[in-house]
């Protein structure tokens, strides 16, 4: 029971650890939007893990799981643009890295709708972080198109990496475990 309490305290009290957020200069165009997901290990790992997870599930999950992430990330982006508060954004992002890594590492195979709902939930936090970076008065369209395009490419990279390791699912699971471990590091502020 103490371990559960300590873990809950770490999650709730985790510092803002994602280096891709707040105060990074001009963020108003496609290029800056594109670079945002690539500029922080938290986004890179979560989005790559979505691709690994989609590949592990196979079938229609190959498109439905990444599409759910991208779609809900756009929703989160709008919330961020509009200044709608969302509690624990950085913690939600770190938890996404942990949870998505664990989903890949354990080899769980939930129904596609549940997998899409899981990634969609976490995508809201990622989108909010991206949307919150847009300066007041700047055009959101190019910036949004940029971060959504980079996200889709990171999903494709995860799918491609898993496809290259096809038949060696232990390798994909190991990759998931490494992502999950990084998620723990993000949660504790490493």
- Helix % is over 70%
Beta-strand content estimate: under 5%
Sum up the overall morphology in one term.
globular
- Number of strand elements: 0
Overall domain count: 1
Mean pLDDT: 85
Rg, alpha carbons: 16 Å
* Residue windows where pLDDT falls under 50 for at least 5 positions: 1-27
Number of helices: 8
The major β-sheet equals:
none
Structural class: mainly alpha
What order do the SSEs take from the amino end to the carboxyl end, as H and E? HHHHHHHH
Amino-to-carboxy terminus distance = 25 Å
Describe this structure in words.
The protein is an all-alpha fold and about 190 residues long. About 75% of the residues lie in helices and about 0% in strands. It has 8 helices and no strands.
Brief overview, please?
The chain has helices spanning 2-13, 30-38, 41-57, 61-81, 89-106, 112-131, 140-164, 169-188. With 190 residues, it is mainly α. The radius of gyration is 16 Å and the shape is globular.
């Amino acid at each position: 029971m103490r371990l559960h309490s300590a873990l809950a305290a770490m999650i709730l009290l985790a510092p803002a650890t994602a280096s891709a957020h707040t105060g990074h200069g001009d963020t108003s165009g496609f290029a800056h939007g594109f670079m945002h997901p690539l500029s922080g290990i938290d986004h890179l790992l979560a989005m790559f893990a979505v691709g690994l997870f989609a590949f592990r599930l196979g079938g229609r999950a190959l498109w439905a799981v990444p599409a759910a992430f991208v779609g809900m990330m756009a929703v989160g982006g709008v919330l961020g643009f509009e200044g709608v508060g969302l509690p624990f954004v950085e913690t939600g992002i770190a938890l996404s890295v942990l949870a998505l890594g664990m989903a890949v590492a354990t080899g769980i195979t939930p129904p596609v709708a549940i997998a899409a709902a899981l990634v969609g939930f976490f995508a809201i936090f990622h989108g909010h972080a991206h949307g919150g970076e847009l300066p007041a008065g700047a055009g959101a369209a190019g910036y949004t198109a940029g971060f959504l395009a980079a996200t889709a490419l990171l999903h494709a990279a995860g799918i491609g990496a898993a496809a290259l390791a096809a038949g060696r699912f232990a390798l994909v699971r190991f990759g998931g475990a490494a992502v999950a471990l990084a998620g723990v590091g993000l949660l504790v502020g490493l």
